[in-house]
Each structure stands twice: as structure tokens, then as C-alpha cells.
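User: Universal stress protein, Hoyosella subflava:
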Amino acid sequence: MQSAACQLTAKNTRPSREKLCCFQLNRGLDDLDCALNHSRRNFFGIVDRAREFRDKAGFFMAIMVAVTDTDEGAYALATAIREARELHTNLVILNLAARRVDTSSIPSDVPVDIVTRNGPEDRDHAQVILSQIHEHEGVTRLILGVHRRSPVGKATLGNVSHRVLLEAPVPVLAVKVPE
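Assistant: Predicted structure for Universal stress protein:
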């Protein structure tokens, strides 16, 4: 829509250069807005068609999250719930903690599968995470909580997250608790 100052008159007079530039700018913005709305419709249409195809074909897509007893584990779980809800996928919670995972914050529209540790034989958390990714077909992303390390800690510790980042067959989203 053009402003009153930018409208071209139907008189035989030639529009000023300023009015002509303003008219062209408004027309360009209208064209850009139309193209953007068209792109949004196409994008969401493609997403909806992909979801319908996935549902009809019986594809199983899930986000896996490794949860520990730490603040990083709780933050990773909160991030995974948000991601699963936004992407309309299932959530696989890999409980690496000694206690049960609190599932009260998970909305009812997010399907959840909780995998618990077997006992002392699965003390290598990196191996447990990697094997569970292979066991659960359809895992499309892993969410892992990480924390800040000192320079000495970087050299000696952090093997679990480092190993999982390097060896995971799916993309890994490493999240850090905000300060």
C-alpha cells in the first residue's frame, strides 16, 4: 500500500524523482512481502506433507537426551522437551542418573520412552549413549548437557562428551546451562 505522499498523480505532470523513488521502493517492499508470505506457505506446506508421509509410512523419528543427576542433565532434558515439541517427534530419555527421571514437566502431546541403566556393567556413559543410539532406530538427534571446564580439566576430563561428539552417528546438540 502506498502512502499519500508517494502516490503518482494522473495529471500530465511528470512525477518528481523523490516520488518516483518512493513509489518504486514501496512496490519493491510489497513484492518482497508477497514473496516472503508465499515462501512461508510453501515451507509449512512441505513440513505438513512430510509429517503426513512419515505418519502414513510408519516412520519413527525421535530425539534422544542423556540425563544425569546434574544441572546440565536437567537443562538438557528441558531443551529436549522443547525440541521434541517443536519438531513433533518422540522423545527418548536415556537415564544415566542413579534416581528416576522427573517426567512431570513433559507435556502430554510429547510421546516419551525412558531407558534406564542396567547396573554397574554400564559405567562407561559414552558407550551406553552410543549403543542406545544404535538400538533405537529413528533417533535423529542427541541432546547432551555439558559444563565449563578449567584448562587443566579440559586436558584430563570431559572424555564422555568428547567421545560422544566424535563417534555419534547422529547430530549432537551440546547445551550448556546459562549463567
